[in-house]
Write a structure and sequence with these properties.
By secondary structure, this protein is an alpha+beta fold. It contains three helices and six strands, in the order ααββαββββ. The chain has helices at 5-24, 28-33, 54-62; strands at 34-44, 47-52, 70-79, 82-92, 96-107, 110-120.
Length: 128
Amino acid sequence: MRDKISEYAAVEAAAMKFVNSVAEGNSTYAKELFTEDAVLFGILDGVMERGSIERFYNNVDTVGAGDNFKARIDVLAVEETVAVVRVLEEGWGGRIDFTDFLLLLKLDGEWRCVAKAYNQNSNTIKHI
């Protein structure tokens, strides 16, 4: 069952921790959002990334977002205990555009992210 509109705002606020971490190049906010056992899946510059969310933290902490970084949060669904969020990113690291999908669960009354899957826009891939 679709949840109340106010719950969409709570999910958006949780996802903002993700955006703040990326924008500031500091994983501290994201560590409040993701569960310890959260997983990551995606292809970065043609190389498959999968496994622990620690890979994301490392990327955030070692590559600054850049002065022209922009992001948009779209809350796609909130169904009582599960939510799906899409985050559009432009200009991460000064060159990469991403579409991120975050899967959140409401755990002990708090929205926490258990999985992140992403797409790097093909026109921003740097072939190594």
